[in-house]
Design brief:
alpha/beta; homodimer; 4-stranded parallel β-sheet; Rossmann fold; 18 helices
């Protein structure tokens, strides 16, 4: 029985696919919060190298992947695509379940696909040092790896609560040579200000972003790097979906349903956008399902509006599904899904009904992950466990209806650094957090009234 | 630049290679400690299924891999072989460095190669439940995975000190459905006896083996499973070296030197035995280097003698390099290398000068691992870090001599569960343990006088 589709290294994509070339609607411009006007490349220049700024707004359909980036990709790419025969059998479903596995990268997730590209372009433009924020550490470790491979310094502002509770991702970043500080830190004005008000502040992703942005904006040799949300980040992730298309051809099936978890949207976009092109251009009849945590359901329950990307209101305004930039989600284990907003591309696709979203509580996702690992072997990270829950529900619907649909999902990372979460789940101690209706209402009231 | 050699799934080996068919000397028989006579298959029947006992003594050159085992292998095999261009460049060496990477298995090491085979044969013979011991948990998690995939119960006796200090491997085993107890436990007479004498006993691998063996020997539905040392375990690991031979052909080079770390010997044997055949049969001029920890250097400093495989003297006597079965090694981070003995096949190859051994302290190995991860990306487990130290030394010797030797080593697992060890190393807190001369002399005095 064939279960794994390995793509030959010669088939590693040569270009990223840019959905902006094919969107059937214009993407809303990014707005300067002071002027209310669309921002230009120069507004972003203190934070990003010009090549990435140009990618952010490019409408070129295919953008060439520089050879030094492909050389690093080859350390783990092409990644395997599996058919989950054993899971299908356990579910008794006629559905065909396929998954692309991104956990084989040295950092254990899809994040290095963009981290490597970002480090490369910064290096090309003479940048010496990158800053970023990280929650549980998946993005920070990817950027630490990438900076190390291109000889850049890397400074990671890690949410203080995670810094102390989950030290292993911190050690991973340090092993790759990054400097990691708990945020709020004394290294920035933003951090100092928070610490003056509350010396015991556990930090938040919003605070950490403010620190990383301030650090980059105030140092000549330094730029800032973001792991999701932005167009160029989603662009870099399309290597995933392009490989998956070739591998689905090898398997002899085309997906009817594509599923991925969404935090900022990059892993879902990476797998789905090359297929989305077929839906837009070739009118393929297929469904796309973005899966969110019930504790932070930006698409399912948020507003589609202009909002800040961070809590401290230092970023431009972007049109997206948002729960409000002051909303702080509950401490679910899927740290990568705890973001108040959503990538503008994903938001626009949802708003235009080209895809759908749904939300689950974390315990049912861990139950789905357990069923997956006990049939397929791989232990999923808590984030893609949300995708797995939706996959199982779709497969069970096929059992009900007798339809042999082909389901494809992105297993975006392994759970080796999340064993304490599995421990809680197995011990029956994992809690769910009800959708925080009142908190969201309060946060939505603080969304700026722009372009309404 | 080509750096990764992916083998097509159609090239997954169909047979294991059995070096017993080609050894230029007879392997000393296993001896019954009571009678002093060679044991027969029936003596092992309470512990192992007959198919594995027959593999243990088979001299058939190629033994077919059952299709259900190959089906599971395909979840992660063939594993990639890399050329470490970036490490070569950093070292400024003319040597060509290649490594086979076994960390891509769901358990993160080479151990599932035999765990899956053992679970399969036990299942075939109607066994319902397997027991084993584990130290840091690498072997236990591999067996937990394999038992889960074949629907067997699995009970793991985990050394109590590790059970409490390193909970994440325990959770991994439980995630795959295994029952894990700290050893010494109250579940066996052996465990009860130890706890009576010392209720606070931190346990040891020797005690855990005694418990797992007693459990299997006293229950009709249960057998015992071992993760290294025995001939059939080394046999199953030869998928590694067979794949590597094909991949080295793809790369266009044949190794001059093959390097691996050794605890019981299985990962080293897995990579090297298919090449050893070329040395024995075709008189290839090549070197094999087994790398040990200075804290437990069985080959480098032990005696080649009949000894027990466990501390409690419950196993048969096997001829091997040993530091004495009562020797308890210091608590180095490379838990998989803390074994007093050595596989009989590896021992005999060393004794007959077909290979060599050397020993290193752990800090220099972590330094080598750091150099590796900062050039190649992958974070190695502490065990293969020993191999990496020897690889770097060999490569630097090539720089000195100007020789462009081809070096191949086994990167037997990743270090995701060893980040606290890296943390100690990076903080300069890692200790070395001098070779414990007096303790070894004492233990060697307790080696039984058999066949001398």
């Amino acid at each position: 029985m064939e279960t794994k589709y390995n793509l030959d290294e010669s088939k590693l994509p040569t270009h990223w696919y840019n959905i902006l070339a094919d969107l059937p609607f214009p993407l809303a411009p990014v707005i300067h919060p002071g002027t209310g006007q669309p921002i230009g490349p120069q507004d972003l220049a203190p934070l990003f190298p010009m090549s990435l700024i140009m990618q952010e707004v490019s409408t070129e359909r295919f953008i060439e992947i520089p050879e030094p980036v492909r050389e690093i990709y080859r350390l783990w790419r092409p990644t395997p695509l599996f058919r989950a025969h054993r899971l299908e059998k356990a579910l008794g479903t006629p559905a065909r379940i396929f998954y692309k596995y991104e956990g084989v990268s040295p950092a254990g997730s899809h994040k290095p696909n963009t981290a490597v590209a970002q480090a490369y372009y910064n290096k090309q433009e003479g940048v010496k040092r990158l800053t970023t924020e990280t929650g549980a550490g998946q993005w920070g470790s990817a950027l630490a790896l990438a900076c190390n491979l291109f000889g850049l310094e890397c400074k990671v502002y890690m949410v203080k609560a995670s810094f102390h509770q989950k030290p292993y991702r911190r050690v991973m970043m340090e092993t790759w040579g990054a400097k990691v500080v708990p945020s709020p830190s004394r290294d920035t004005h933003a951090g100092q200000h928070i610490l003056e008000v509350d010396p015991e502040s556990p930090g938040s992703l919003g605070i950490a972003i403010s620190e990383a942005v301030e650090d980059a904006a105030t140092r000549e040799d330094t730029k800032y790097s973001l792991g999701s949300v932005l167009n160029h980040v989603l662009l870099h992730q399309t290597v995933v979906g392009q490989e998956a298309k070739l591998q689905m051809e090898m398997a002899g099936y085309y997906p009817d349903v594509i599923i991925g978890c969404v935090g900022g949207g990059s892993n879902f976009a990476g797998l789905s956008l090359p297929f989305m092109r077929d839906k837009i251009v070739d009118k393929k009849n297929m469904r796309f399902i973005a899966v969110e945590p019930e504790a932070c359901p930006s698409i399912s329950r948020g507003e589609y509006a202009y909002d800040f990307g961070d809590t401290a209101e230092t970023t431009p305004l972007i049109k997206m599904h948002t729960l409000g930039h002051t909303f702080i989600p509950a401490a679910i284990h899927a740290g990568g899904l705890r973001y108040h907003g959503m990538a503008p591309i994903i938001s626009a696709l949802c708003y235009n009904k080209l895809m759908e979203a749904r939300a689950y509580h974390q315990t049912v996702c861990f139950q789905a992950a357990l069923e997956f690992t006990r049939t397929e072997g791989i232990i999923p990270a808590p984030e893609p466990s949300h995708a797995i829950k939706a996959v199982i529900d779709e497969a069970l619907a096929c059992r009900q209806s007798g339809e042999a649909r082909t389901i494809l999902f992105n297993l975006s990372g392994h759970g080796h650094f999340d064993m304490s979460a599995y421990d809680s789940f197995l011990a029956g101690k994992l809690e769910d957090y009800a959708y925080p209706e009142a908190k969201v209402r309060e946060a939505l009231a603080r969304v700026p009234k722009v372009g309404v």
